[in-house]
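Escalated from tier 1: flavin-adenine dinucleotide holo job.
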Amino acid sequence: LFQTSLQFDNIVRYDEYFCTELLVEDDHCKGVVCIDIKSGEAKTFIANAVILATGGAGRVYQFNTNGGIVTGDGMSMAYRKGVALRDMEFVQYHPTGLPSSGILMTEGCRGEGGLLVNKDGYRYLQDYGLGPASDKPVKKAMELGPRDRLSQAFWHEREKGRTVKTEYGDVVYLDMRHLGEDYLHERLPMICHLAEQFEGVDPVTDPVPVRPAVHYTMGGIRTDIHAATSLTGLYAVGECASSGLHGANRLGSNSLTEFCVFGKVAGETAADFVKKQAPVTFSDSLQQQAQAALDGINALRRQSGNESIADIRKALTLTMEDHCGIYREEKLLKAGLDEVNALIERYQHIEIKDKSEAFNTELLMAYELGMLLDVAKAMLVSALNRTESRGAHQRLEPEYTERDDENFLKH
Ligand SMILES: Cc1cc2nc3c(=O)[nH]c(=O)nc-3n(C[C@H](O)[C@H](O)[C@H](O)COP(=O)(O)OP(=O)(O)OC[C@H]3O[C@@H](n4cnc5c(N)ncnc54)[C@H](O)[C@@H]3O)c2cc1C
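Tier 2 regenerated the structure:
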């Protein structure tokens, strides 16, 4: 996409811009406010259509496979303007992340014959309806079972005390030693490299510690089949959107397909919409909104307080892991919601120590934290309200452990 965009003179790129807010006039999204990261200057863009493609929100959780930018910004910006979010309770865990970094040990490891074993070296998946255990990989069985079932099995093993405690939480082992050095280096060279670099483990000689890590958010900004949101002029595509395509649990690789298809749809729909509009003007009302947003950025820079961004963020991600993780129940979800509300209150008292203008990453972290808090709250409230189990949302209460299609066969 980057290279393609460079080939067109009529595409103006604004690299290193961080978007903080949507501008809305008469229920029509008419632009955005951004920080130019290179200079620190706040800038306003007005337009008849805005397409959000800001990615998912996996960083709401402590253990995740996602990049540092996956902080739910688009979801939060839309939500703050009253745009509908949907399916926020559906959060996919990947069963085999490296504990210290979340880096993925891909399904390919298990496809080649890697085994998941507990602290006793036992292939525990056979105890959770995924067996029988065979020597060769079998599609949809044991280690090649669905991501959610494998993550749930890990949770049960941990409850039974059959996982291994580490400073990064409990782990099980991905054992690939039997595949042999030549085979591993030929078929999984990157995996060997990553395990050594990030975990200090050579898969040829040692089992690799792994644990479930949040991988994908099925929920997001509600869109229709044309990528349009509930706000006129606002479109969303990719992981920030909830097009409904992934249901309660995305199948691996469907994300790329989704944004290739809906990226085109969003572009075409937005272009058609813009052609039918009068040219957008920087009206008094938009100017006032933009000014308020710019004042907000400056106020946040200058604000003094006694709360640390890092402390709140750590508390948030651990709270989500403990209260809205692989399995959920009302008691935990409510306690998590109370905790997140308390963190939202503490967030009002943060102070940005870095007062510089250019590349002020602390300022961006502050914005991201505010957005993460919004998204976390939406996830908790949605999870509380879905009193059934489906896909990536599993409830522990005996009356909610099954699908309830009568009441919940809906987004
Ligand atoms: C390790 C890993 C492996 C994966 N493997 C696969 C796979 O094999 N197949 C598959 O289909 N899917 C896979 N996925 C999922 C898939 O990669 C993601 O769902 C997909 O990349 C999301 O694309 P996106 O364009 O929606 O968002 P992203 O790729 O996350 O891009 C979002 C962009 O928005 C920018 N942005 C965010 N907030 C702001 C802001 N406030 N202002 C300005 N810019 C902002 C970010 O900097 C970023 O450039 C994988 C995910 C991970 C983590």
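The domain at 2-92+216-282 is CATH 3.50.50.60 (FAD/NAD(P)-binding domain).
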